[in-house]
UniProtKB/TrEMBL annotation:
Name listed for the protein in its UniProt record: Tetraspanin
Sections of the chain in a coiled coil: none
UniProt topology in membrane: Multi-pass membrane protein
Gene Ontology CC terms: plasma membrane
Localization, UniProt: Membrane
PANTHER family, sorted: TETRASPANIN
């Protein structure tokens, strides 16, 4: 009876990890296709820093899932205790990392306020500077979510940006773009930079981002619970199989 149970667990673990392996292979394929595609898709993605970062996130996630699936499949079907132990340790590391991130997010949640982001924007945002990570990230956010500043365009008053560019009221990332030209050309750029409300985005990024993610908050929460549950079962299965192998 114990042997039948162990055999069933082995094949269940193999099938489960085979799907993880396929998922990782698919993500790796998509990421590599975007980076190496000769049809010009790479240039489209590279124009948006947020999308370009997302490609590398997909590659990293795909690589991790590929490795996990491979270790789980080989460890289960070959009944290799070394591979199963490595699989268990990797899952445990991911699980503890996710737990640590959740705990840190809870304790540092007061730093995610509108006032905190406004203060940091005033201190560090430089305008059009692709070498500064903080500035590039904010430019990507304002361009992606069609917003300006944290609460409003007024956040750039008495800021580092105004000291660097005294002739500009808002940065280029706040200016509206022509949708018919693929968001390449600005609409009334000079008027926008001089402070005209008709040619800039007037909604703050804090509200824009919160409104966007509120749509997916329950889906994200449910997905997080499913992922954590799967990880727990994967660790239990791996350890049971590890202990059952003679």
């Amino acid at each position: 009876m114990e042997g039948d149970c162990l055999s069933c667990m082995k094949y269940l673990m193999f099938i489960f990890n085979f799907f993880i392996f396929l998922g990782g292979s698919f993500l790796l394929g998509v990421g590599l296709w975007v980076l190496l595609d000769p049809m010009g898709f790479r240039e489209i993605v590279a124009a948006n820093p947020l999308l370009f970062t997302g490609v590398y996130v997909i590659l990293a996630l795909g690589g991790l899932l590929f490795l996990l699936g491979f270790l789980g499949c080989c460890g289960a079907i070959r009944e290799n205790k070394c591979l199963l132990l490595f699989f268990f340790m990797l899952i445990l590391f991911i699980f503890l990392t996710e737990l640590a991130v959740a705990i840190l997010a809870f304790f540092f949640r007061e730093h995610l306020t509108r006032e905190y982001f406004t203060r940091e924007l005033k201190r560090h945002y430089q305008g059009h500077n692709n070498t500064d990570v903080f500035t590039s990230t904010w430019n990507a956010i304002m361009t992606t979510f069609d917003c300006c500043g944290v609460g409003s365009p007024d956040d750039f008053e008495e800021s580092l940006f105004r000291l660097i560019s005294p002739g500009k009221v808002v940065p280029e990332a706040c200016c509206q773009r022509n949708r018919f030209l693929g968001d390449v050309e600005h609409v009334g750029l000079e008027q926008c930079l001089s402070g005209s409300m008709a040619f800039r985005h007037n909604k703050g990024c804090y509200s824009a981002v919160v409104d966007y993610f509120e749509t997916y908050i329950y889906m994200a929460g449910a997905l997080a619970i499913v992922v954590l549950t799967v990880e727990l079962f994967a660790m239990v299965f791996a350890m049971c199989l590890f202990r059952g192998i003679q």
